């Protein structure tokens, strides 16, 4: 997450023409990252300009200058005094008009360059939620997910940042494409429905298209572009984060989006996938023993409203496995550890 105090510090140094080469690169990188940042930069520069002018005005010695004017005024003829009086009256009337005009210009420019305030919605592990963005886009958040988004979309694009899993129902607007930032990659859409899984500890990003079109673009400066044609409907993109390689798979759409309706579906899934998804769903640590992991066994099961204990019982009934639940313990900060489940062969 960016340090706004440091960014503002860089802008102030730049305003005073004191930026070194490395600081210029940092500031330029921040400016290039989004239109919202550019709008925020322009607004801050205007504020600094106005502050500088006010500071200069405070340095004017009004009493001294008024005294000089009075002495000169006393030496003038009657006709010149009348003329000066008229000029003073005109100045009194004109100055407020100038201030009013300047305020209107500043107010209009800041209105046209609004600064979007970033907000975030988070779901704890074991919890799911739904939000609606300012453009009408609906987003469902799965367990252990964080979505960062502006309170209002400004400029030519609509952009959010995702850590975790979310389903997007994007309002159609071809002139303002919708981007989901995935830390190094972005998914681009206009009006469509799709699901993205981008948990920080997962090696893959998964993007499932239910309807419409989405495409993948790189968001790392200098990195090679990933050319990807828009996915077909019911197609899953599996992108390896480290290798920057992907493949496309035809999948069962119900499995990819079942979590939105409170259903957890496994269909020929290996032990690693089951451990990860089951653990996030029930906010528990799931561990398969070595023998079971090496066996290559796959699981097919559907859980809806079951508790962790009920789900494990069903899993043991339908598969040759047994389980052991280790109770939680209190940690040094008075919080409690996650429940731990060890699954092994019967």
Provide an overview of this structure.
The chain is of the alpha+beta class and 346 residues long. The protein has helices at 4-15, 21-32, 35-58, 62-74, 78-112, 253-257, 271-282, 290-295, 308-318, and strands at residues 118-122, 129-132, 138-141, 146-150, 158-169, 178-181, 185-189, 193-198, 204-211, 214-218, 235-240, 245-250, 264-269, 284-288, 299-303, 321-326, 339-345. It is 38% helix and 29% strand. Strands 1, 2, 3, 4, 5, 6, 7, 8, 9, 10, 11 and 12 form a twelve-stranded mixed β-sheet that branches. A three-stranded mixed β-sheet has the order 14-17-16.
Order of helices and strands: HHHHHEEEEEEEEEEEEHEHEHEHEE
CATH topology of the largest domain: Jelly Rolls
Number of domains: 3
CATH class categorisation of the largest domain: Mainly Beta
Any idea what the CATH architecture of the largest domain is? Answer: Sandwich
Mean pLDDT, all residues: 80
Give the N-terminus to C-terminus distance in angstroms: 46 Å
Overall shape: elongated
Q: Residue ranges: pLDDT <50 for 5 or more in a row?
A: 108-112
The biggest beta sheet is recorded as: 12 strands, mixed
Helicity, as a percent range: 25-40%
Helix/strand-derived category reads alpha+beta
How much beta, percentage-wise?
A: 25-35%
Q: In total, how many beta strands?
A: 17
Q: State Rg.
A: 31 Å
Give me the number of helical elements. Answer: 9
